[in-house]
From TrEMBL:
Transmembrane feature ranges: none
Role this protein plays: Molecular chaperone; assists the folding of proteins upon ATP hydrolysis. Known to play a role, in vitro, in the folding of actin and tubulin.
CDD domains for this protein: RRM_ABT1_like, TCP1_beta
Family the UniProt entry places it in: Belongs to the ESF2/ABP1 family. Belongs to the TCP-1 chaperonin family.
NCBIfam families, alphabetized: chap_CCT_beta (TIGR02341), thermosome_beta (NF041083)
Protein name (database record): CCT-beta
Domain RRM: 570-661
Source species, domain of life: Eukaryota
Ranges where the record places region Disordered: 610-629, 731-775
Keywords in alphabetical order: ATP-binding, Chaperone, Cytoplasm, Nucleotide-binding, RNA-binding
């Protein structure tokens, strides 16, 4: 018997099963976001299971995948590359997942033909390098040096419109493309998007959005404070300004008169006044705080003519400190060490029905704010995600100004070069290179399918066009035909396409290398879950302790004794329950070693609990043993003391059950373990967690079995089709023979027989044989002349000498 090297609940899958689970997970994630690809892609509604049941409507691949809770490890790899794509270049999050899924789909077909995964990976690497070189050759770099710019503004507009064409802003893509390009041009080559702020205000239409120079803070100016400040000196802080009142929840104060309470309040106010005086000593006229500012300090700031802004969100004050050139301060004892922010004008503005604070003439000149207007919060959230993607792509294009055409043109160019490489590559690698080309062509195919077009016809026309020199053809989903991408102004950033190609290839290679999946015992998550349960239990115990304060002394002592007994109890875990063992027999066997409090055994299936109850009832009614005994998989035993539990586990683990040959459990062994940190109350969470693990394993096995069943059903259908064709051919032949017609059948080749050349004809050879004379034959053992004549005619009848 081979001992297990993994802990309990750890699982492993090997070989084809592990590879199949990885491939299925990757293809399932790709199929999930496939319908969102392209200008005519559909949206997904994501509903959370939290208290608010928040709803998100989006077609952004990274947003969809980040919202999913996935257990398949290969699927998590594709989710990670989508996140990296979003962080690096901002666009192409759906394309990279779809391309990786198509590569895995093609690799599965190659694996079915017994091609080794390393051979497939080598072919994919060669194809990816060839495709990248094709992109490098076709990329166009339009640099303009007339106005000291390293990029073309027209290219930026085309890229922005192409990026926004698949988003919710596609109807007004020219307007928002201009907003995005103007905002990025202010950065002067920087990729730091922190200086571009996006504010969402419900109301109006999307076209009411605008770009404002400066910084807008979504806060109101308090009552009695200046509404306009010129040449502002701004102190951005994160400090507590709410200690002018007695903290009710923070401390307990016992006083014998209200005069003492008044003295405490006066001391608090004096302390706050000193803090405000230190802030005013910095020579500022605007104070922005992350936390609340209560009435008393706000009044002091107003008397000093200082604009005080409270409860600004943390992102807001970080961005404000960045654009005004200041730093966030927490202590104010040394004014010389605090860096203040500066701007030319602070004023209050109105956007819709809301009042906001506008900072203009900030120290960082490239700072700006995009104000989005829309019908609802969901529309504004999706518009913000779309605009953020466009800003990311444009900021990357400023540094790398190479541009490619869009509309499936880059994929067809790469596929053409990869096909040519496959023709000149010997061996099985050529099959992998051809599969890579098919995966690339799947991108324009999916774009056409999502637009409701005939993808097979369009891709065939597109392939024929790309065999011409200087072709710029792509799929135009607006007109539903093949169009010139250069004339229509559909362009994409080279950096986006390169990142999609390389990331998808690397992800597919990583998944193809897998031949074993090991799922470790979920101790970390389980301990974390137990931590939450423990915190909840501690809070409940704290409440119980508060209730105990109001009980009499007798009940206090009783509760205290029960708590002490519960702390002394210990739990043992039985990982395998022998057949025929039940609660009564288990108690009889173990009770001789120590006092037992409770026993819980888990039935082998989910419907067993009800059946056990029914069996018990039938035993009571009939007085017999009832139906067949219930089988149990595992169990827990609670002892009155931890020492007993530990001693029983050390004494019985690995030993034979019963100890005598006449016992029915003699040939079984104890599998019992002491759980030092386990409490009986944790049993419900433990059972639920194990049930979830079993359901997950069962789902994976069912999916693999269904896939195998579909494969064999397909083979059966093919064989049935071939047999039906043969039957029809036989019937046709029979009908034609009966009607007297000739039925043309392909001539069968005669069986090949090895022919030995004859040097002389057979008749001549027989005549040339030496013949025995009759006299000689008659002299052999005194044969008669008549018998000699017969021997001459049949010489094989000569008896042995």
């Amino acid at each position: 018997m081979v001992e297990r090297i993994f802990k309990d609940e750890a699982t492993e899958e090997k070989g084809e099963r592990a590879r199949l689970a990885s491939l299925i997970g990757g293809m399932a994630i790709a199929d999930l976001v496939k319908t969102t690809l392209g200008p005519k892609g559909m949206d997904k509604i994501l509903q959370s299971t939290g208290r608010g049941h928040e709803v998100t409507v989006t077609n952004d691949g990274a947003t969809i995948l980040k919202s999913l809770h996935i257990d398949n490890p290969a699927a998590k790899i594709l989710v990670d590359i989508s996140k990296v794509q979003d962080d690096e270049v901002g666009d192409g999050t759906t394309s990279v997942v779809v391309l990786a899924g198509e590569l895995l789909r093609e690799a599965e077909k190659l694996l079915a033909t017994k091609i080794h995964p390393m051979t497939i990976i080598a072919g994919f690497r060669m194809a990816a390098e060839c495709a990248r070189n094709a992109l490098l050759q076709k990329a166009v770099d339009n640099k303009e040096n007339e106005v000291m710019q390293r990029y073309s503004k027209s290219d930026l507009m085309k890229i922005a419109m192409t990026t926004l064409s698949s988003k919710i802003l596609s109807q007004d893509k020219e307007y928002f493309a201009k907003l995005a390009v103007d905002a990025v041009m202010r950065l002067k080559g920087s990729t730091n998007l922190e200086s571009i702020q996006i504010i969402k205000k419900p109301g109006g239409s999307l076209k009411d959005s605008f770009l404002d120079e400066g910084f807008i803070l979504d806060k109101k100016i308090g009552v009695g404070q200046p509404k306009r400040i010129e040449n502002a000196k701004i102190l951005v802080a994160n400090t507590a300004m709410d200690t002018d009142k007695v903290k009710i929840y923070g401390a307990r104060v016992r006083v014998d008169s209200m005069a003492k309470v008044a003295e405490i309040e006066a001391a608090e106010k004096e302390k706050m006044k000193e803090k405000v005086d230190k802030i005013i000593a910095h020579g500022i006229n605007c104070f922005v705080n992350r936390q609340l500012i209560y009435n008393f300090p706000e009044e002091l700031f107003a008397n000093a003519g200082i604009l005080a802004i409270e409860h600004a969100d943390f992102d807001g004050i970080e961005r404000l400190a960045l654009v005004t050139g200041g730093e966030i301060a927490s202590t104010f004892d040394n004014p010389e060490s605090v860096k203040l922010g500066h701007c030319k004008l602070i004023e209050e503005i109105m956007i819709g029905e809301d009042k906001l604070i506008h900072f203009s003439g900030v120290e960082m000149g490239q700072a700006c704010t995009i104000v989005l207007r829309g019908a609802s919060r969901h529309v504004l959230d999706e518009a913000e995600r779309s605009l953020h993607d466009a800003l990311c792509v444009l900021s990357q294009t400023v540094n790398d100004s190479r541009v490619l055409l869009g509309g499936g043109w880059p994929e067809m160019v790469m596929a053409k070069e990869v096909d040519e490489l496959a023709r000149v590559t010997p061996g099985k690698k050529s099959h992998a290179i051809e599969a890579f080309s098919r995966a690339l062509i799947a991108i324009p195919t999916i774009i056409a399918d999502n637009a409701g077009l005939d993808s097979a016809e369009l891709v065939a026309q597109l392939r024929a066009e790309h065999h011409k020199e200087g072709c710029t053809a792509g799929i135009d989903v607006i007109s539903g035909s093949i169009g010139d991408m250069a004339e229509r102004g559909i362009s994409e950033a080279f950096k986006v396409k390169q990142a999609v190609l390389l990331s998808a290839t690397e992800a597919a290679e990583m998944i193809l290398r897998v031949d074993e999946i090991i799922t470790c015992a979920p101790h970390c998550l389980h301990l974390l879950f137990q931590g939450f349960v423990l915190c909840k239990r501690m809070s409940e115990e704290h409440e119980e302790q508060e209730q105990v304060l109001f009980l009499d002394e007798g009940k206090k002592k009783k509760l205290k004794k029960e708590a002490e007994k519960a702390q002394k109890r210990g739990v043992c875990y039985i990982s395998r329950v022998p057949p025929g063992m039940d609660h009564v027999k288990l108690r009889q066997l173990i009770s001789q070693y120590g006092e037992i409090q409770r026993i819980y055994l888990v039935p082998q299936n989910s419907s067993s609990i009800d059946r056990v109850n029914d069996n018990n009832k039938s035993r009571k009614r009939g007085g017999g043993s009832g139906t067949k005994a219930q089988a149990y998989s595992e169990g827990w035993v609670e002892f009155a003391s931890k020492s007993n539990a530990k001693r029983v586990a050390n004494l019985l683990n690995g030993e034979q059950i019963g100890g005598k040959k006449r016992s029915q459990f003699y040939y079984d062994h104890w599998n019992i373990k002491y759980l030092s940190k386990f409490k009986w109350d944790n049993l419900t969470e433990e059972i639920a967690y194990k049930k979830a693990i079993r359901e997950q394993k069962l789902a994976i096995e069912i999916s693999a079995a269904k896939r195998e069943r579909d494969f064999y059903l397909k083979k059966v259908d093919q064989s049935r089709a071939l047999s039906s064709i043969e039957e029809r051919m036989k019937k046709k032949q029979k009908v034609q023979q009966e009607s007297g017609g000739e039925f043309s059948v392909a001539p069968q080749k005669p069986p090949v027989c090895r022919q030995f050349p004859q040097k002389k004809p057979i008749a001549e050879r027989e005549r040339s044989k030496p013949q025995l004379s009759k006299d000689v034959l008659a002299g052999v053992k005194d044969l008669s002349p008549a018998y000699a004549d017969r021997m001459e005619e049949a010489p094989w009848l000569i008896p042995s000498l």
